[in-house]
Design goal:
The complex is a heterodimer of chains A (about 100) and B (about 425). Helices cover about 30% and strands about 25% of the residues of chain A. Chain A is α+β, with helices and mostly antiparallel strands and about 100 residues long. The longest helix of chain B is centred in the C-terminal third of the chain and has 41 residues. Classes of the chains: A alpha+beta (about 100), B mainly alpha (about 425).
């Protein structure tokens, strides 16, 4: 049976980078997920492929929106971090395939 | 939590008119190419070619670049634009004065109509410069991209200033140099100082971001910056004092600087994570090939100009057209698909993301039309250049017709994006 953390990762697969057309999990943008059932709190630590990414706000809003739909009684907090910086090594195998990289 | 670049975006109402007006001027220019091809097969100092060139350089390229910069400066500098009101006034002035300047050149009205138009353009550029520099003051982040952008704006100011001086000198000559030599100075300050440096500054940040390229050698950009500016400043001085050998060395300095930039972009292309390029990126890649061709032509021209005057005069027009149409226009057309859909999409769907199913930015325009536009452009451009080189007006016109078809499709896509109606489906 999937844990809540796994469920959250699975939900975040529905958040697509509108420029790259790949979801944020396969892009390796999500670094950490914290699920607190007692305090009804979800914290997601994530990054962007570049600090200049003009779609950052959209991606974060999308992630927050999806989690709020499925966890209506929870506070959802998306924290944007730049350390460690994103590199192509963060891509999953699926992400590499989606971007055409072997 | 860090600031997010997109939160600094200005209102799309400021940016969109630049794209619509620029696209319209580009379309008018292709119509003029079809009906007045003789402008391209004679000496470049003729009223019709000057008119078409200024319509393209100001009404099409500079206007669109201004609009795109208002969106991109907050992304690159990571701060909000200093003033949207200044952008609006600058747009109105630049748009009206570009048209009146083109009409003045067409009819060769050297006098008040030309002076007033040139003065209006200078005011528009001053407002733009104030806006960009005050925006830059808000950020402490230093980068070579920022240096390129800020320096290019100064070169634009210099170019339009020289433009007004030239127009006064045409009627009341007070400068010792021949007008054609002064024209070279004005044109290269504009092309290499403004357009190329601005393009280097913006594309060095954007293209690696679109291709997802990391670990690039930024020293190449620093070398490009110093070589281009040293070459430009020295070239202008040497051209003014007519020291030919030193002018050639200056041209080589600019050319090597541009090669450093091309090498940076080639590195970004080779290191890209995203393997497949969309139509916008393909047209951008095509533009860099034309830049390389223009560089080769520049070197041939500067070394060999006096030996084979009859051939090199046509080559000079091919060189200018390759830079203006082949490189700058092609890059702007390609990058329009990487900026305008996102501007409109962000404006329309920013508050609906995550709440409803919405279209993607690339679904705001026809990818098929963009593809056909690219092929028409490449074909039309090559036909036109052949016509100019062979001095056959019917071939120039034929190339103009194919270019017109390309620009018509481009305008169709611009309007399709701009007039996009929001569509949502509940999740």
């Amino acid at each position: 049976m999937a844990t809540e953390k796994e469920k959250i990762f699975s939900l975040l697969k529905g958040v697509i980078d509108p420029e790259l057309m790949v979801n944020i999990i396969d892009l390796g943008l999500v670094y950490n997920v914290l699920y607190d059932d007692e305090q009804k709190k979800i914290i997601v630590e994530m990054t962007l492929t570049s600090p200049s990414c003009p779609l950052g706000e959209v991606i974060i809003n999308d992630a927050e929106g999806i989690l709020k739909i499925h966890y209506q009684n929870f506070t959802v907090n998306i924290i944007l971090v730049w350390e460690p910086a994103w590199t192509p090594d963060c891509l999953t195998q699926q992400g590499k395939i989606a971007l055409g990289k072997n | 939590m860090q600031l997010i670049a997109s939160k600094n975006s200005p209102s799309s109402q400021i940016i969109i008119p630049h794209f619509v007006f620029g696209g319209f001027c580009w379309l008018v220019a292709t119509i003029l190419i079809i009906f007045y091809p003789e402008a391209f097969v004679q000496h470049y100092f003729n009223p019709k070619l000057l008119s078409i060139t200024h319509l393209l350089a100001l009404g099409w390229m500079t206007i669109i670049i201004f609009g795109a910069l208002y969106q991109l400066i907050p992304v690159i500098f990571e701060v909000k634009l200093y003033s949207e009101q200044l952008s609006f006034v600058s747009f109105i002035l630049l748009a009206t004065c570009s048209i009146s300047l083109a009409i003045s050149f067409w009819n060769f009205w050297i006098g008040m109509p030309m002076y007033i138009s040139a003065a209006g353009i200078i005011v528009a550029v001053i407002l733009f410069t104030v806006n960009i520099y005050f925006t830059a003051l808000k950020t402490k982040k230093e980068s070579i991209e920022k240096d390129f952008i800020l320096t290019s704006v100064i070169w634009l100011l210099f170019t339009v200033g020289v433009g007004l001086t030239l127009s006064i000198n045409l009627r009341n000559p007070f400068l010792s140099l021949p007008t054609t030599e002064l024209l070279k100075l004005h044109a290269h300050a504009g092309i290499a100082g403004w357009f190329i440096q601005l393009i280097i500054g913006v594309s060095s940040r954007l293209l690696p971001m679109f291709m997802v390229s990391h670990n690039l050698n930024m020293k190449k950009l620093k070398c490009a910056y110093y070589l281009i500016n040293a070459g430009l400043i020295s070239g202008i001085i040497f051209l003014f004092i007519q020291w030919q050998v030193a002018v050639i060395i200056s041209v080589f300095s600019v050319a090597i600087g541009v090669i450093f930039f091309l090498s940076f972009q080639l590195e970004a292309y080779k290191k890209r994570v995203r393997k497949q390029l969309d139509t916008g990126m393909k047209q951008s890649a095509l533009s860099f090939i034309f830049l390389l061709i223009a560089l080769i032509l520049a070197l041939i021209l500067v070394i060999d100009f006096k030996k084979a005057f009859s051939i090199t005069l046509q080559m000079a027009v091919v060189y200018g057209s390759t830079l203006m149409l082949g490189f700058i226009s092609s890059l702007i057309m390609g990058q329009t698909y990487k900026t305008l859909p996102f501007i409109v999409w962000l404006n329309t769907y920013r508050n609906r993301v995550g709440k409803a199913k919405i279209p993607l930015p690339k679904e705001l325009y026809s990818e098929n039309f963009a593809n056909i536009q690219l092929w028409f452009f490449a074909t039309g451009f090559i036909i036109m250049m052949a016509g100019i080189f062979l001095k056959i007006t019917s071939i120039v016109s034929s190339g103009g017709i194919v270019l017109f078809c390309s620009v018509l499709l481009y305008n169709f896509n611009i309007l399709k994006i701009v007039f996009h109606k929001p569509t949502t489906l509940n999740k």
